[in-house]
């Protein structure tokens, strides 16, 4: 039986205190009816005796304590899921906003879900082609992995996200592929960019979009990634699809957590973020992966902007602990006009070795990846040395590496946002660039691969 109360005692920011409650459960969904008859939603955040703290999704403006009715619905926040969600656009609470018909759900699912049990996890090993050389060739994404993109304010992470959403596919697998896109706290202009890009390129036909705008209540931001992941879990583990989940921007999500934490008067942690930020982020990231015996999978690419480009900031710092690597966008490369400005030296995919090689990409992938990385690092060092001491201080090998680094930025990294390179095109381009380095310096590639592939590029 639904319980209804008119005992609102206090409203502080996005939080409401109700007294005299009985039998209320944590995370229970709440309906609030204001004095004007307007209905808003919330959820139970905390229970202390007969007092309940409610988190309001639509904000607290205009609420009259005396005349407000609170109804506890006896169930958590749920999402109605169906395959018909593919190709549709929803708000952060799962309501359609694309002027299409309402979704008739196959079933309703609690959005809080749970991380995948480590015992039932299957090890990620299948290569996912994003069409971006710096990712496919050097920081390979594999099915079931969590690989975040660390960006900065003003950098083109939206373009990179849209490009991955358009181009990503699993090679050699007939299973259906879908993209679930969750946006938190983005501007209307950014939202329109994604909608237009997905629609124009046809990517919308295999995508589900959940969009929370910057002028929507901050509290809705906490639900948006969970809505997206609930949809992804349904498509992956019940419909057998390979699902790529792109979440942007996790920094806005963490700011919403901090706002709620401050309203609850909790003791702040680093930089004012709640002490449970690590736990909260892990509950999102650990819902990605593969489950033994099930054909579907969830691969996750969270995107976050590092405040002041500080990689030691709590959000990227904690994210790095939980996920399997990071792709880092460089302001230096961006100012040089390189698109996408992915800086490969600090970027890392900890599972890249599992998704490459014979039968997955090509036999020479691991060797060329190591050689290109080493050559690029040596080339950047040589360029820095030339700035200090002049070109005359460089050896012939140093000059070759410096030339390689210059060509690498211009041709390999700077592919633009519309170019979709296959993994074979990426590997062939790597060999073409390696020609400028003397063979005696190619110490990380087996001789048989040099004889086989470098000769083809002469």
TrEMBL record:
Cross-referenced SUPFAM superfamilies: N-terminal domain of alpha and beta subunits of F1 ATP synthase, P-loop containing nucleoside triphosphate hydrolases
Stored Pfam families: ATP-synt_ab, ATP-synt_ab_N, ATP-synt_VA_C
CC annotations in GO: proton-transporting ATP synthase complex
Record domain ATP synthase A/B type C-terminal: where: 354-453
Record InterPro entries: ATP-synt_VA_C, ATPase_F1/V1/A1_a/bsu_N, ATPase_F1/V1/A1_a/bsu_N_sf, ATPase_F1/V1/A1_a/bsu_nucl-bd, P-loop_NTPase, V-ATPase_su_B/beta
Protein family: Belongs to the ATPase alpha/beta chains family.
HAMAP family: ATP_synth_B_arch
Protein name: V-type ATP synthase beta chain
Species this protein is from: Fusobacterium canifelinum
